[in-house]
Amino acid sequence: NSCRSCLSITCPFNNTMQSGNRVDERKRKAGEAELETSYPCPYLDTIQRSFLDFDHEPACSVSLQGGPHVYACLVCGKFFRGRGRQTPAYTHAVEEGHFVFLHLSRGTFHCLPDDYEIDDASVTDIRAALHPTFAPSDIAKLDSNTDLSRDLFGQRYLPGFVGLNNHNKTDCINAVVQALAHVTPIRDFFLAQSSPGMDSGTPNKKEVRKNHTSIRSAVQVTDAFGELVRKMWSNQRFKSTVDPDILVQAISVASKKRFRIGSQAEAGELMAWLLHQLHLGTGGGKKAGSSIIHETFQGSVRMTVKEAKKVPVVSPREDEDDRLGSDDEEEANGSEDAKEEEVVVEETTKDTNFLQLTLDIPEKPLFRDEAGGLVIPQEPLINVLAKFDGKTFSDSVSRTGTTQKKRYRLLKLSDYLILHLDRFKSNNYNREKNPTIVAFPVTNLDLHEYVFPDGESPVLPTESEIRSMSVKEIKKTLRKFRAEDVSKDILEKAELVETAVRYLTKDLPELLSNKYDLVANITHVNPSEVGREEKVDPLQEGSYKCHVHHRATNQWYEMQDLHVQEIMPQQIGVSESYVLIFRRTGLS
Question: Given the DSSP bridges, would you call strands 241-242 and 163-164 parallel, antiparallel or unpaired?
Answer without folding.
Answer: parallel
